[in-house]
Structures are given as C-alpha cells and as structure tokens.
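Incident review: delayed structure delivery

Summary: a single-chain prediction request sat in the queue longer than the usual turnaround. Root cause was a stuck worker, restarted by the on-call engineer. No data loss occurred. The affected request and its eventual output are reproduced below so the record is complete for anyone auditing the incident later.

Affected input:
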Amino acid sequence: MQRHWHTCVYLILTLTTSTFAGVNVSSPWNKSTVGTSVHYAASGNTTCDKGVTSMGVYVDNELKYVQNGDQLSTNLSFSPGSYNTVVQEWDNCGGSTYTPIAITVTNKTGVWVMSPANNGNVGSPVNYQATATSYTCPQGVSSMGVYVNNVLKYTTQGAMLNTNLSFSPGTYNTVVEEWDHCGGASYTPIKINVGGGGGGSTLYNIQAGGPWINWGELPPNYNICNPCGSGVTWSMDQHVSNPSRDGNSSQYNIGGNKPYADALFTDKLLGQGSTEGLPDNNHTLLPTLHNFTYDVYFYTTQLSLSQTLEFDINMFMNGVSMIWGHQCNLVNGQVWDIWDNTGHTWVSTGVPCHPVNNGWNHLTIQVQRESNNDLLFQTITLNGVQSTVNKTYAPGTCDPGWWGVTVNYQMDGNSKQSAYTTYLDNFNFTYY
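Output delivered after worker restart:
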C-alpha cells in the first residue's frame, strides 16, 4: 500500500489554519501566575466571510465577559486560587473557536518564573519567561529584568517577561527581578546548568495541553477536511486516567468507511499560535534552534488494525520547510520510514518497528537542523533499543510568512478502515 505525506502547500494549509480561524491570547499567558486583577487581551479570526461577531471569557465553565467585535480587552477580578479559563470567539456564520488559558491567582508580591526551572539543565539560548505581581504598590509593576552572575543582562517594561539569552557552557546564578512604581522590588533566583552539546528547554506533558488542532485526510489526495462526512471520523479526549502512566493521558480515536483514510493531530509549540506562550514574534528564538527530541509513550489494544502510526517534528522559518516525518509502518514490513522533503516520499530506514500491544511503548526521536537547513535524522529509540538512522535530506520551501515549530501525531486507517483507539502520555519535547 502506498503511503502518503503532505506537500509543502498542504503543510502550510495544515499549520496555518488556526491563524485564520482561532483565538490569539496575548494576556494572560497559559499556566502563568497573576494578580487578582487579570488583564485579558485577545484577537479572534475566522474563515467565515462575515467575520467575528463577538468574543468572551469563560471562568471554570461560566461565561464572565462578552465583547462585540474581533478584539477583546478587559480586566477581571479573581480570588486567590487556580482557574481554568477560556477565551472564545463566535462568528457570524454560527461557528466558534477558543483558546484555554489556565492561571494561578495570587495576592502576594513576587516574581513567578515559568522557564527555566531552578537547578535545571538547559541548552543555549535559555528562554526566560516570568510574570510579576506587586501588592505593596498600588500602581503595580513597572518593569522586569534578568541578572546573570550579578550583571543585569535584560530589562523589559511591564509585569510580563519573555526573552532568550545566550550562554556558554557552565553553571550560572541568575535572578529574575521586578521593580514597582513605588520604588520597591522583589526577585526569584534561578540557578541553571548550561550544557555544551545537550540539555535544552523541555515542554512537558504536551498531550494534556494545547489546544491541539485535528483534521481528517481522505485518499487519494489526502487533503485535510473537517468534517469529512462518513469517510473518516476521529476524536481526541484529554485528561484520561486509565490507561495512563500518570493519570493524565490523551485518547485518540479513528473510524469511518473510506479505506486508508487518516486522522491528523497537531500542536503548535513555538512561534505563531504557540500553545506554550512562546510566540517568538521577533524571530529571536527559532533561528537559534538546531536540536529537537520527540519523547512520548503510546499505547494501543488494537495494534493490528492500524496501517501506520506517525510521529513528526515540523519547523517552518523564513520560507524554509523542514519536516522530520517518522512513521511506524506496521503493515508493510514493520519498519520505520522517514520523510524525504524534496522527493515528497517515504523512505524505509530498515530499522525495525515492533511496538507491544496492550502495553505502553516508549518512543524517543532525535533530529537536527544543520547549518544549511538540511534535515538530519539522528536516532530512533523504541522501548530502550536505540537505532542510528544518520540520514540527511534537503529542506523544502514554504510561505515565508509562517514561522513555527509543531509536532504531529497521526493515525492511519487500514484497508477496511477499521476503527481503533490509541493513547499518548508523558509527551515531552526538547529544543535547543
């Protein structure tokens, strides 16, 4: 059976759909710590030719605020605690999209650092992301900054900080500090260990984050569709407790009646539309990244019903398309295939792919972007057995307006389009 991959045009369509239909939240950041008065700022986009009619904010499933138009700006009051909030847009065609924003509200003065972790092992450049609150000064936080070994390296206005700093290998005592409008200050020390050829920044449990975007794909052209009629059906359910390694897995389902139809699930991690609060608007992060690790556990009780399972890392930057596509070809040889970006075809590596059924499989994929943007496929490790791939392919080309790093998980249907279910857990992504 001939398998497929996406052309460059298809990838741009796939990965930029939500920039035309979605909600971009600039404040607050997902998983951030904020004060009791929380500023919400967002914009909405839609594929509806009549535009966005209104936007709103839900707090723990209760609609708290609505504003007409495709822009939202408001302050909402909270008591200290943790909240699951959602910013949603509604269009004039009856559709809607949303972005979930989890926040922790505090009534204390302090600096709350999301990245890097204290005593963490990281690669250069190091992403610093933090928020600050001040309850000793009614006017609030004026600015924030980062000290490295007692030298001030970076400052920014306001109560949110997001920057990347370059380091040589070594151990550093860094401090993230806030200064308020009343002359006061507070800080949080962050000790980091910068590696010479490893480390990196890691995003954890991304199967439980998002929002993920998903589509169906129908043969023979495999253009994305949503909905796709009865040809292919799919769903994704997060925060599943069983089966799970830690009580927070995600369940993926595929069905339908069109043989060899697929279901594609995508999370935009870095760059435009980042679900991790790393939009890289000034393009200071992506050009520095050369190493990526896709680390995930997957589980299925119906392995024989799958044609292939696909795990991909994608990078788009300055008109260059880099797709590190990997598929476990379960029907045709039980081997790992990788994607040739310019030949637009799957190439067998000869590396065996024999995942276990009714159990968790641990998969780690390591790849590299070389100095000329060539794609190096380095290693595939399945259930503790590491195989060296060491194959290099030239990159493709894409719309220069799209900058981002994404990950895909795809389930491919077999000759009968048999319905089956898989699970992902402990899905971590490292970059440096």
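Verification: Confidence is low (pLDDT under 50) at residues 1-20.
Action items: add queue-age alerting; document worker restart procedure.
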